[in-house]
Amino acid sequence: MERTPLFQLDHVSVTYRRGALTHQEVRAVDDFSLDIFDDETVGVVGETGSGKSTIAKVLTRLENPTRGRVFYKGREMKSLSAKSLFNFRSEVQLVFQDPYESLFPRHNVRKTLEVPLRLHRGGGKAPSDSDVAELLDLVELDRSILEKYPRELSGGMRQRLSIARALAVHPKFVILDEPVSMLDMSIRAGILNLLMRLKKDEGISYMYITHDLASAKFICDKMVIMYLGKIIEAGASGQVLDRPAHPYTMLLLDSIFDLKRPGQLLELPEREELESSMSLPRGCHFHPRCPYATDECTVTPPAMTTLDGSHAAACYHPLQESRSGSRSH
Description:
This protein is of the alpha/beta class.
C-alpha cells in the first residue's frame, strides 16, 4: 500500500512585491515540489537567499503560497478547520537559528517551558515541576538551571532549551532552521547527536534547513539542493553527496573539501550582486556561475531529470560521475 506523505508540497511558488511605486516582483520560491514522510529527516540546503526559510514559513502556515498547494496528512492545509489548525500547531514545531533571539529574555527556563505545556493542555492546570524537569532531561540539560534566564546560558544550552520548548507539545514534525550555524564547532556535534537520538526515541520527523552540507550529511536521510528559489538537485543523501550531479552541489561540497575526494575541487565564478531573487537570470538560474554552461542553459530552465533511482537534477549537463542511470523527464 502506498504511504500518504506527512507533508506534500505540490508546485509551490511564493512571490512578494516590493516597492511602493515599482511593485517589483520577488520570487522567493519557484515551483517547489516535495513529499515528506514519517520517520525521515529531509535536508533543504542552499545559500542565503535560496528560499529555504520561506519553505519553513509555508510549512508552518506563517506564509501562504502564491501558487501551488500544500497538504498535511493528505488534507490541503488551507482547508483546515480551526480545531484542525490548533492540532496542527501542536504537531508541527519550528526551532530557529538564533536561540537567543527566539527565547523571551524575561522568561526563565521554568517559565519558558511552562507556557507551551500549559497551552498544550488547553490553558488549564499549571504544569508540575516534574513535567518541566522531564523536558530538561530529554534534551540533556541539568535541572539546576530552572531559575536561570537565557542571558545566563551558553549558546548550546539555549539551543537545547529551544528544542525542549518545541518538544513540550509532543510534535510529530520539527523544522530545524539552521539550528547549529551560530554554535561553536565543538558544540554542534552534541546538538546533532541529540536531534538524532530524539528522532529515534520520540518518533519525530525533521526538516533540516542549512547551508552546511557537512552537518546535513550527518543527519539527513534525503535532501534537496536549492538555488535562487528552485530545486536544482534532489535524492537520498548518499546519492547527492557521493555522486553530485549539479555543478552547484559540487560547489557546496567543495566548501567541505577533504582528502577523500582528491581532484574534485571545482572553481566557479563568485555569485554576482545582481543575481538575486529580484533579478533572476534567464534559463538556468545558475548559468552565470557555471563553467559548463552552453547556449541552451541561457535560454530555457532545465527540468528535473531522473539520473538514478530517486536521484534527480535540473541540469542539461550533469556531472559525468552521476551519469549512471537512464534519464527521463
